[in-house]
Amino acid sequence: MGNGANWSINWQTALEKIQEHNLSAALEIILETVGYEPENMALINLLADCYYYLGEFDRAKACWEEVLRLNPANQEAKNKIGRYKTPSFQSWLKRYKHALYNIEQKNYEAALGSLRELLGENDGFVSVYQFLGLCYMACAEYDQARIVWQKGLERDIGNETLSDYLNMISDKNEKTLDATVEEKQVSKRKVGTNLPIQKAALALTAAACLLLLFKTGVTPDQGKAFQNQDATLSGQVAAHEAIDEKAAEDSPVSSNNLLIEEERSRGGSDYDLEKEKVYYREGYNAYQEGNLKKATSNLGVVVSMNTGNYLNREALYYLARSCYLQKNYEEAEAYYLQYLEQFPGTNYYDDSLFYLGVVYDATGQEEKAVEALTEMQRISPNCGYESSDFFKSVMKDK
């Protein structure tokens, strides 16, 4: 890479990987590049995004703090660390860490219940899917574990850990799995830990193993690159108070100057495609951070472009969900119906049917709620939603 001379190319490539929901690939690219550009704020902000979506919250926070050390006026880092520190997210994070503690204590049923609640509140963090699947496995609910991990892979299509677990669980040979989980995962990914992993039943071994992976955080290849970044972050500032959380909250697109300038230099369809990527990234990031007004604004722009491509599909689903979470049921219903019409048989088809049923129930349309859930059950049996309390209550006499 010529000592980082082409960092902007790598930044753009990593950004595209994030937009394609390939967080693991983006992380590898950024970790390699940031070793040559340890004070590049655009790279560090993008690195923070990867860590955040993967569920590496402490590292994401460390990246934002490093950006603010380099430039206290950096608006992107200020906004994101501000939302990270909000009471609502801190409450979510505290419950998440308690769920991980329950896994460490082998209290899998309690952890499972907590993680299901947390996933219902925010469905964008890959680590929640990883640990929830392991809890299902520990409780011998193998089909549910498979479903949850498949959902996790939709958020990070390059996640080797989830792929390995899915491949192993598909064998349906628990004795073989028990012998291979520790060998295959720990030797491949563990980065310096003194905690022993005892050979036990499949679920216990898997849960302990992945919890160790979560704590160590990176693969051996990533670890070497991360050492450079870790050294840079080691002396960062302690706290940044009085962060303006309202800055650029409601207006579509608030950053990144480099990409925006790159857009303006283009024309025609290339410009439109770049613009679509910018609005999608801003909207999806806002959704992840709980800034639903900004998410609705930016994702609405992408949906209105009506390109019919991957980003258009993703934007439509998250626009529907943003409206649903804001209890704007009329618009949520319209967008879920639009998704079902435009993108049948795709990743979020069963999700859209389920939440359409929830919307119908919330607006007093009980018959339509039953119809939506019945269709979901028909096209995607054992999809995971059938075990929810809502599904059971609506369909109990059906």
Brief rundown of the structure:
This is Tetratricopeptide repeat protein. The chain has about 400 residues and is mainly α. It has helices spanning about 5-20, 25-35, 40-55, 55-70, 75-85, 85-105, 110-120, 125-140, 140-155, 160-170, 175-190, 200-215, 220-235, 255-265, 270-290, 290-305, 310-325, 330-340, 350-360, 365-380, 390-395.
What fraction of the residues are assigned to beta strands by DSSP? under 5%
- CATH architecture descriptor of the domain at 1-237: Alpha Horseshoe
The CATH H-level superfamily of the domain at 1-237 is Tetratricopeptide repeat domain
Give the proportion of residues in helices: over 70%
Q: Sheet with the most strands?
A: none
Radius of gyration: 21 Å
Question: pLDDT under 50 segments (min length 5)?
Answer: 172-201, 215-271
CATH class of the domain at 1-237: Mainly Alpha
Q: Could you say which structural class the secondary elements and strand pairing correspond to?
A: mainly alpha
> Judging from the principal axes of the Cα atoms, what is the shape?
globular
What would the CATH topology of the domain at 1-237 be?
Serine Threonine Protein Phosphatase 5, Tetratricopeptide repeat
Protein name: Tetratricopeptide repeat protein
Keywords: Repeat, TPR repeat
Organism: hydrocarbon metagenome
Pfam families: TPR_12, TPR_2
